[in-house]
Each structure stands twice: as C-alpha cells, then as structure tokens.
Amino acid sequence: MTEALALEGIRKSFDGVVVLDEATFGAKAGEVHALLGENGAGKSSLMNVAAGLYAPEGGRILIDGAAVSLNGPADARARGIGMVHQHFKLVMPFTVAENILLANQRPRYRAGIKDIRAAIEEQSRALGFAIDPDRRVSTLTVAEQQQVEIVKVLVGGARILVLDEPTAVLTDAEADQLLKTVQTLARAGAAVVLVTHKLHEVKRYADKVTIMRRGKAVATLDPSQTTAAELTQLTVGDTQPFSPHVRKADGAPTRLNVGRLRCLRADGRTALEDATFFVRAGEIYGIAGVSGNGQAELAEALIGARQPAEGELFIDGLGNVAQAPMSGARMAAVAAIPADRYSFALAGTLSIADNFAVANIGSGRYGSLAMVDRGAIRRDATQAVADYDVQGVRSIDQRAALLSGGNAQKLVIAREFSREPAVVVAHSPSRGLDARACNAVHQRLLAARDRGAAVVLISEDLDEVMNLSDRIGVMTRGRIVAEFDRPADRQAIGRAMVDHA
Ligand SMILES: Nc1ncnc2c1ncn2[C@@H]1O[C@H](COP(=O)(O)OP(=O)(O)OP(=O)(O)O)[C@@H](O)[C@H]1O
Fold first, then answer.
1. Out of 3.30.390.30, 3.40.50.300, 3.30.70.100, 3.40.190.290, which CATH number does the structure's domain 254-499 have?
2. CA-CA distance, 257 to 240, in Å (whole number)?
3. Order of strands across the sheet with 208-213?
4. Which residue lies with its CA nearest to atom 25 of ligand 1?
5. 215 lines ligand 1 (CB under 6 A)
6. Which of 11, 15, 19 to probe ligand 1 with, by most ligand atoms within 8 A of CB?
7. What is the pTM (predicted TM-score) of this model?
C-alpha cells in the first residue's frame, strides 16, 4: 500500500549544525507509527518538516505517493497533515471555539463560530472528550488543552495526524483513553505518527516503530516482535536502572508546611480547597492524583507563581510566604520545576545563559542587579549545560526556545539545582525526557533529598511517585484526601483517587 506520508532522505541543519541527516520515514493509512529516539535526536524537527514548518534542505516529501513541496503550515494542513506540538499553540485568553476558529479560518466570524462549535462538539463526542467550546483556554488544565489541540487538527480535516508526545501530560488512564481513540482513528483510515518516549505505549498501541538517532532513522521494527529492553538499547544505549533507598526523615525539621491552602482558578472556580500537608528535611513527598485536581495550582502556589486566596505556606527560614511578594530569598530557597516550562520556567526568546542566570540573580551570587558579573554567569551556565548533558547547545548565547523539548527541561533542572535549595517543587519533572535523562533527574531528586532538601514531587505518573516518594499524598478536588507511608499499596492509592472523586 502507498504510504500516506513519506519523507525520503530529509536533510536540515541550523547554523551549520546538521539536525536531520538523510532521515527517511513513512506512515501508512490505517496504522499508528511510533517515532522513538533520545532527546535531541531530531524527531520533532522531522515532523516539523512534514507539517510545513521547516523547509528541508534536501530530500523529498510524498503525500499518497506524489512528491510535494510544502509551502508552509497552511499548505501542509490543506493537504491533510495535522500536527499537535509538544508546546501547545493556543491563545490563552480566547475560548476553545475561538482558538479552533483561528486555526481553521471561516469566511464570516458569526457563522464560523456556530459552525465550529458544532464541529467541536461532534469531534469531542466521537473522541470521548468533554470539551466545552465556550470555556476560556486559560481555565483549562494542561490535559484539557491537549484535547483541544487534537480536536483542532481533526476539525481542520487532518488525515495524517502527527502527535508529538501527546501523553506526556496525561495520567495512565487518560493516556490509555487517548491512545485507544487514536488507534480507532487509524483503523478508520488515518495515518498516525506518535512521537513518544514511553515504550509501553509503543508496545501496546503502535503497529510500527521507527527509531531515530542523531538525525537519522536507524531502524523500523514491528513492536510486537521487539522487547522493551531492545527498544531502550536501540534508543539510548545502555542505561543503569537504579533502586532508590528509603530514607527515614522522622524527627527531621519540617521545611515546608502547607495549611488549608485555597486557590481559585482564573474563572473563579476553586482549584485548591484546604490543601494541607508538610514535608520534612530529607524527605520526598509525592502527590498522586488525576490531573486537573489542583496539582498545577498547588505547584504554582508553592513556587510563588500564584497567590493563594487563603491559607498558610511556611517555608523554613522564610516564615509564612502565602501572601508575601516574590523575593530573591524565596527564589533561592525554592527550586521550581513546573510542568509547563515555557509559562513558568523558561523565556524562550532569552539566551540559555540568561535563562540560567534569571533564577539565581536575586541570590547575590552574580553581584547586584546594577553590576552583574556576566563572566561568572557564563562560566556557571557552561558548566551546568555540561553537567546536565543539555544537548544541542551550539553556544550559551543561543535562544532557549531552540532547544529540543527534553533538553529545555534539562536546562530548567540544571538551573534549579545549581543552588542548594531548601525546598524542591517538581511537577512532572521527567515529562518529555528519554530514559537516560529521566534516570538522571530521578537521581538528582534523590540527591537533593539526601542533602536535606524537602522535595515535593507532583506527578500524574503513579510509578514515578511510588518509586521515589517517602510519603505519598493523594490529591482529589484540591485536597489531600489520603496519605500513605512507603511502601505504599498501589491499589489503595488508586482507590483513594477514585473514592474521593
Ligand atoms: N529552529 C531551530 N533552530 C535551531 N536548532 C533547532 C531548531 N529546531 C530544532 N533544533 C535543534 O535540532 C536538534 C533536534 O531537536 P528536536 O526537537 O528535533 O529533537 P527531538 O528528538 O524531538 O527531542 P526531544 O525528545 O527532546 O523533544 C536539537 O539539537 C535542537 O536544538
């Protein structure tokens, strides 16, 4: 059968650095084709070529067997290629319907919005999503925004669907539901490309898998005939599995104390309701729960990006900072690894060095604001990039937005751990990381704990929470509804999530 999408010998470089090196990839209608590869291997770049965002320097693009030259993203969309990006491209103050209308222009706004609303409702129903077309995107959780992105490309008539790490922000159950839906779309005739780092998704949902390494597609395999260990080996080479030892923090001082914290969402609805827990020095406190139950708001409140409506937030050495303005001392004390790195952690248009400096400037380590020691910043940024294996850095003066998703996350982590924070707040810290980088981040969290930091690990990935946490709180509807000591019973945690929902 002819491939719906074929990319042959694609070449692309940036600033003279080769990013795609004769990469070849094909996706057939009716199939889910996974694309695997370590952070920075070129997966997003290759798909950006397919989506008309990057013009290739060599090679051919074929749609249904016919060579085409894509004249930008609108041209790719018109030919049935729809891509959902790692970093969503939604306009936050607009409603769902307005966003989808914007991406799929209609001649007249009024008729257009009615028409689009009906299309959204139809697609959402078919996909099993509960999307309200009139909700403002800024009030949606990350998982809901992901669904809007998928509906957006389907409303646009995509039949070649490229999903760049679509489940990175979803819980296991949400991811399963999404991938089942995606599989159904494929069976109904779509060609689906699934960029992912999650091997179980490849094994369970993909009909084929292509592995990329350093800009090349090095193998295409049948996932049912390949073990997860073989896929890991092909993707990142050997990685060392590790087992975190448990540290008993009983009796250690409390470094973070959250009492009856209440936060409202932008639309006035309550996101956090009486959230109460504490974390001791030398302890990882994991927060498990279905996404959208207040985790994002909690993380934002803890890192100072959101002011709580009520409640207390004690940080060791700083006192109650619930209503306090952001300060250099707080930035120095709390390491912030938020789930949405481009909203809260990185400024894409600033250089890598400036992004590195920004969270450390208040500490006085680089002089005063009036006299910044740029030499020291450059030295530390260069060292951190090396220590944390941030790849794809031609120069620390390059814009952070040019890093691959996983490498941008490594930069955030490098910066946040470059000081010795008393409290670490990590929300989905391994989102978008390949197996090796994910292991490295887990090791860093454990090292921070062993050094005496209080670590809050918020993650929708229950395995991650269970593997690393010394204690686990289950969060439902903005409250910690149950707590478990290690070793926690997975079933009991699952029940707590559901019982209180
Ligand atoms: N517009 C751009 N300008 C400069 N460099 C770029 C640009 N887009 C991508 N790159 C570089 O190309 C390389 C491949 O990045 P890409 O995002 O394709 O990797 P990836 O396999 O998707 O990684 P990840 O799993 O981390 O998302 C990286 O080194 C990245 O910095």
1. 3.40.50.300
2. 35
3. 81-84, 160-164, 191-195, 32-37, 208-213, 216-221
4. 39
5. no
6. 19
7. 0.78
Q: Give me the tens of pLDDT residue by residue for the chain, a chain 501 residues long.
A: 789 999 999 999 998 889 999 999 999 999 999 999 999 999 999 999 999 999 999 999 999 999 999 999 999 999 999 999 877 789 988 999 999 998 887 656 666 788 899 999 998 888 888 889 999 998 887 778 888 999 999 998 999 999 999 887 777 777 888 899 899 999 999 999 999 988 899 999 999 999 999 999 999 999 999 988 888 888 887 665 555 555 666 678 899 999 999 998 777 778 899 999 999 999 999 999 877 788 989 999 999 989 999 999 999 989 999 998 888 788 888 999 988 777 777 888 899 999 988 877 766 778 776 788 888 889 999 999 999 989 988 899 999 988 988 899 899 999 998 888 999 999 999 888 888 888 888 999 999 999 999 999 999 888 899 999 999 999 988 999 999 998 888 888 988 887 765
Nearest CA to ligand 1 atom 1: 402
Which amino acid appears at position 31 of this protein?
A: E
Tell me, using a 6 A CB cutoff, whether residue 401 lines ligand 1: no
Q: Which is nearest to 340 in space by CA: 80, 78, 20, 88?
A: 88
Domain 3-236 and domain 254-499, same fold? Reply is: yes
Task: Using the structure block, give the residue that is written with the tokens 């690990």.
Answer: 457
Which DSSP letter does residue 42 get? Answer: S
Residue whose token pair is 């940080």: 315
CATH of region 3-236? 3.40.50.300
- Alpha-carbon span 91 to 8, nearest angstrom: 34
Q: C-alpha 360: how far from its chain's center?
A: 24
- Structural domain spans, the chain: 3-236, 254-499
For the Cβ of 40 lying below 6 angstroms from any atom of ligand 1, the answer is yes
Q: Is the CB of 430 under 6 A from ligand 1?
A: no
| CB contact at 8 A, 256 and 423 | yes
Pocket test for ligand 1, best of 7, 10, 13, 14 (most atoms within 8 A of CB): 14
At 91, is the secondary structure helix, strand, or coil? coil
- The sign of the torsion formed by the CA atoms of 497, 287, 410, 326 equals positive
Task: List beta partners, residue 36.
Answer: 211
Distance 46 CA to ligand 1 centre (A): 9
- Counting from 1 in the atom list of ligand 1, the atom nearest the Cα of 54 is 1
Distance between Cα 367 and ligand 1 center (Å): 33
Helical residues (DSSP H) of 206-359, grouped into ranges: 228-236, 295-303, 328-333, 341-344, 352-358
- Phi/psi for 297 (5° steps) reads -65, -35
How do beta strands 283-288 and 454-458 pair?
A: parallel
Which among 402, 410, 430, 431 is the best mutation to test ligand 1's pocket, defined by most ligand atoms within 8 Å of the CB? Answer: 402
